[in-house]
Structure formats: C-alpha cells, structure tokens
Amino acid sequence: xxAPGHSVDEYLETIYFLAFPIGEYTPHGAGxxxxxxxxxxxxxxxxxxxxxxxxxxxxxxxxxxxxxxEALLTETGRERAERVVRKHRIxxxxxxxxxxxxxxxxxxxADELGDTFSDEMIERIDDKLGHPQRCPHGWPVDPAVExxxxxxLAPLATVPAGTRATIVRLAEHDGDLxxxxxxxxxxxxxxxLVRTAEPAAxxxxxxxxxxxxxxxxxxxAAGLFVRPA
Length: 229
Hints:
Blueprint lengths: L7 H11 L16 H9 L3 H13 L3 E3 L5 E3 L1 H23 L5 H11 L5 H10 L14 H7 L4 E2 L8 E7 L4 H9 L7 E8 L4 E6 L3 E5 L1 H5 L1 E5 L1
Helix pairs in contact: 1-2, 1-4, 2-3, 4-5, 4-6, 5-8
C-alpha cells in the first residue's frame, strides 16, 4: 500500500519529473542516486516505503525496468502521470485565479486537492478558466508542450555571468524556496541579468528588472529555469 498521505498518482507524478532532462528533480553532480532514494527524498518517505511502491507500480504495469535496471514509465504509466500533472496545474490556476491564493500557496493546496476533482470536473474547470497555458509557476499545463520546451531552457545555475535571460519556470518541490522566489520578485516573466556566477562559492548575483540586485545560492539558482536571450 502507498505510504500514508501519498497515492499511486503522487508517486507517478514524481517519477514523471525524474524522467525528463530538465526539471526540479534533475540530479546535480557526478552520479545519480537510485530512483527509490530520489523518490523517497521528494515525497519525504523512507527508502523502504518508496522501494515497496516501485515494486507495486511495476507489478501493475505502470513502470518497467530499463537496460540498466532503471525504472521507466510504461506507456500506460506515462499517460496516467501526465493526467496527474495536468490536473495539478489546472487546480493551481483555479486557486490563484478564482480563490485568491498566492502562487506558492496554490502548489501546497493543489497537492491536498488532487484526489478531490474527477477528470470530468477538471475539464469543466479548464473550460471556465479559458484553457490556461501555464500554472502559476510557469510550467505548461500541457505536458507535451513542457517536454518540447525543455530544450530551450536551462537552470540559472548553469548560465554564465553576463547572460541576459527571462525566468520561465520555478521549482516547486521546496515550499520554503518557492515562497522565497515570490518574495524576491523571482517570478515567471521576470527579466534578469547574471552579474556574477560562482557555483563553487555557492553564490550568484543577478539583477532583476524593476526589482534590483539579488545574491542567491546555488540551490536557488538551480531552481530557476530560464530562457537565455
């Protein structure tokens, strides 16, 4: 059974993010920890609990093992994961556009409400919202658009000094960091200039148009996905 508070869909959503070359779950540094360890870290569960769920997902035909024994979403698993991702982003827009929640609040509330709305209800909400293209944090509502756009973006932590860029997406998995992004004016659509980039010193300095200069850590820079000019 899933760990308390975490459904099959939440596990599939996490694995979905791990499957693509850009995203908040992309590992940094040499080598990648086992999938179960990365899933456990993101969902705040034990390694054993994550491992048991991966076995269940494999038995249910939602994931399969690749040539290197890595876990991959099957076609059925990917389709289900993409529905979960899309639902989450539409709920976030409902919360911000109609209920007055802030961008960072919407992510947490959407996690709580994921199982509340049926697919039919989500389609009605999407229609009433006018078919929004992105969630409040800049992630495309349509996963196919997200994957196509990945090649155009880079984490700010990999961008050299002197680069002008536009913030497109914000990492969501760390609620405190997401809150900090909004407090600092680091929001989708903001234009920035990277003044200094010193990953080894864990410091980047950026100028944000109409906001001012900010010193940010490597962790924060890794959670800002930008489109270089």
